[in-house]
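Need a sequence for this fold. Nothing fancy.
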């Protein structure tokens, strides 16, 4: 069966999600703000959920139509063949509705009218006046943009950033999906040095180590659509999980080439980062250490700093930011031919680092406007491969 899927992602990072989907072998049908759509079958649903690092969830597109009135919304929703998607005992509801530049803008009204329309449709198709709704869950997410209504059924359940490894977090953690996307925007690879001097609960180092080992982000969790026996045979799930495990690289292979480090001034959060890394299966790959940023150093050349330093959300922290970013700039300047990638909401970051960024990308982290600064170092010389390594 062919379906269209929608992968919501961080606004401004659609290119990362698009590349991931293309790499899985699926055809992109549309890229819009914060969303990438693609075509695929039941296998695609399973593989996308297990393998996508940068998408927030995977939605099965149920329908699309225009609606400028609640009557049109009701009729458009009722016209969709819900009986082909939701079984008689299915639990179904409109979990979220968002509206931009549309005549219909009340989320609660949109949700209740669409639910009524679905009930009306399914009552006639299943010849019943009442639904127990005690079976598998089918939660709808609805987007209205310029009066066009797009409806997706959530196949993921808990957001895909919930990999399962992060139990304890720092005060302002970066999500796993955002961390993965930002790493993808850099040229870092498993055989290059990576240091995060503000690692907090370890998200950047852990996501990098998982990439290095090719550990699929969703391989240790399940998804709400694992229970959709009416649409997806369990065999597709078993095959997708098996494929993901088969593609993992051994810890010994990556340990031989990798140098991933995470520092933080808080010893308790460093302990939490170690526990998180162990749960993710990459504890042996990352060197975590209690260390202040003023002690940042490394003897080798051509490394990467990828980090999420404090922004100063609280007023009393703001006064410390100039000195902190000045220290970052000084330590970075002492590293030989390194590159630094930093996400921060501190608008004077470049000024106190003492260098203008080579690139500056605006990214919305939730509702907060942040900047992803790229301070580029020299590229390492091309390696001479011998025949054994080719």
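Here you go.
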């Amino acid at each position: 069966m062919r379906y269209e899927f929608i992968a919501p992602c961080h606004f401004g990072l659609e290119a990362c999600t698009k590349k991931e989907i293309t790499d899985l072998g699926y055809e992109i049908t549309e890229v819009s703000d914060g969303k990438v759509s693609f075509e695929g079958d039941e296998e695609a649903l399973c593989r996308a959920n297990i393998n996508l690092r940068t998408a927030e969830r995977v939605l099965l597109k149920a329908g699309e139509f225009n609606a400028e009135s609640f009557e049109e919304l009701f009729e458009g929703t009722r016209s969709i063949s819900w009986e082909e998607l939701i079984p008689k005992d299915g639990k179904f509801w409109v979990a979220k509705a968002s509206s931009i530049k549309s005549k219909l803008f009340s989320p609660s009204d949109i949700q209740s009218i669409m639910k009524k329309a679905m009930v009306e449709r399914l009552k006639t198709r299943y010849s019943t006046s009442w639904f127990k709704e005690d079976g598998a869950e089918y939660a709808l997410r609805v987007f209205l943009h310029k009066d066009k209504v797009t409806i997706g059924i959530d196949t993921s359940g808990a957001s895909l950033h919930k990999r399962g490894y992060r139990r304890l977090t720092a005060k302002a953690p970066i999500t796993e999906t955002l961390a993965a996307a930002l790493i993808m925007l850099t040229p870092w690879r498993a055989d290059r040095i990576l240091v995060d001097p503000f690692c907090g609960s370890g998200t950047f180092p852990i996501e990098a180590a998982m990439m290095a080992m090719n550990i699929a982000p969703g391989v240790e969790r399940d998804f709400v659509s694992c229970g959709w026996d009416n649409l997806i045979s369990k065999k597709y799930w078993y095959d997708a999980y098996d494929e993901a495990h088969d593609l993992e690289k051994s810890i010994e292979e990556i340990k031989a080439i990798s140098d991933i480090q995470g520092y933080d001034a808080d010893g308790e959060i460093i302990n939490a980062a170690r526990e998180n890394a162990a749960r993710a299966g990459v504890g042996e790959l990352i060197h975590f250490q209690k260390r202040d940023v003023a002690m940042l150093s490394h003897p080798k050349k051509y490394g990467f700093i990828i980090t999420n330093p404090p922004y100063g959300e609280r007023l009393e922290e703001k006064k410390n930011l100039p000195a902190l970013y000045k220290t970052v700039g000084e330590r970075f300047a002492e590293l030989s031919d390194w590159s630094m990638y930093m996400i921060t909401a501190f608008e004077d970051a470049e000024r106190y680092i003492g260098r203008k960024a080579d690139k500056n990308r605006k990214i919305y982290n939730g509702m907060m406007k942040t900047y992803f600064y790229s301070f580029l170092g020299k590229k390492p010389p091309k390696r001479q491969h011998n025949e054994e390594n080719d």
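For context: The two ends are 41 Å apart (CA to CA).
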